[in-house]
Design brief:
Elements lengths: L4 E5 L4 H10 L6 E3 L9 H10 L2 E4 L3 H10 L6 E4 L11 E2 L8 H6 L3 E3 L3 H15 L10 E7 L4 H9 L9 E3 L9 H8 L6 E7 L5 E8 L9 H11 L6 E3 L2 H6 L14 E8 L4 E8 L3 H16 L3
């Protein structure tokens, strides 16, 4: 059997370029690209989309929907890195560690939607705890996250890295209308009863994320504490290659979290900080917004899907 053909539609954006880099030197697949003059030509794009085995869409939402509509070949499988299909029926959510059997569902799927960067951390922390009944689905969740500026895409990278970029704010909170497009994705795939209050921010560093979720123990079931929550996460991710859970001893020794600690990897580290005296817990996720939060996740899903070709 010949190596599968993989076409990246939108390969000059931040995620597309990162996927190219991660696939460099692979001999178990053939990477298909279009010349610069052909990338925006609908006929050439349609031909490439229908001739490949797996298409990876690294496009704005509207362009991703358009690309899917161009696919007439029923054998073509799709990984969509945009947010166009993340809450849509008929698409498999591309977070392999999210729940039991999810990796197998991705491996056999024809349509896979790559998770958003922020939702990866929020869902990774919350879904196992809700599934286990340790945190109620109707808890009034507040989620704060700080990402590197590459989370804003190619335009944000250019704005921060061009001459004179020192004029750009070193830190900026955004999404102040409380309508960030990732919020419905978090609610649906984490299993929350209500929309969480999500507050994102960009820092003056290129890539990496720290995402935190505070919890009040008085609002949880009797007997649930930081150790209970941490052990639940550890059981859920036992054996996972790309998600690690910090031990309580390690968490007690930490005085800060570095959002860049896992840059250039496809890993995510989850930590539970607890102050039993005050009855408070802080859930935290650290990962690369260009890795587990984007291109790394896409390649992980691609590897699972290739196994079924």
């Amino acid at each position: 059997m010949s190596a599968p053909l993989v076409f990246i539609d939108g390969d000059q954006g931040t995620t597309g370029l990162q996927i190219h880099e991660r696939l460099r030197g692979r001999t178990d697949l053939q990477l298909v690209t279009l010349a610069a003059a052909e990338r925006k030509n609908p006929q050439h794009r349609a031909q490439a989309l229908n001739a490949c085995d797996i298409a990876i869409l690294c496009l704005p939402d509207a362009a991703a929907r358009e690309a899917v509509s161009m696919i007439a070949n029923p054998a073509v499988r799709v990984i969509d890195a945009s947010s166009a299909h993340r809450t849509q029926d008929g698409w498999t959510y591309g977070f392999p560690e999210m729940t039991q059997g999810q990796a197998e569902r991705i491996a056999g799927a024809h349509r896979v939607t790559n998770p958003g960067c922020y939702p990866t951390g929020a869902i990774g922390l919350l879904r196992p705890l809700l599934q286990a009944g340790l945190v109620p689905r109707d808890y009034p969740f507040g989620i704060q996250a700080v990402s590197g500026y590459s989370g804003g895409g190619r335009a944000a990278v250019e704005a921060h890295e061009k001459p004179g970029a020192s004029q750009i704010l070193p830190f900026q909170t955004y999404g102040l209308a409380l309508s960030h497009k990732h919020t419905p994705e978090i609610q649906q795939h984490a299993g929350l009863a209500h929309r969480p209050l999500f507050v994102p921010a960009y820092g003056a560093f290129r890539q990496g994320i720290v995402l935190t979720v505070p919890l009040e123990l008085r609002l949880l079931a009797a007997g649930v504490d930081g150790a209970t929550l941490r052990d639940c996460l550890a059981r859920h991710y036992a054996g996972a290659t790309h998600v690690q859970v910090t031990s309580l001893e390690e968490s007690r020794a930490l005085s800060h979290l570095d959002p860049q600690a896992l840059n250039d990897t496809n890993d995510m580290r989850l930590t539970v900080f607890a102050n039993e005296e005050h009855g408070q817990v802080l859930l935290a996720a650290v990962f690369d917004n260009l890795g587990k939060g984007a291109s790394g996740a896409a390649v992980q899903n691609l590897n699972l899907m290739i196994e079924r070709l």
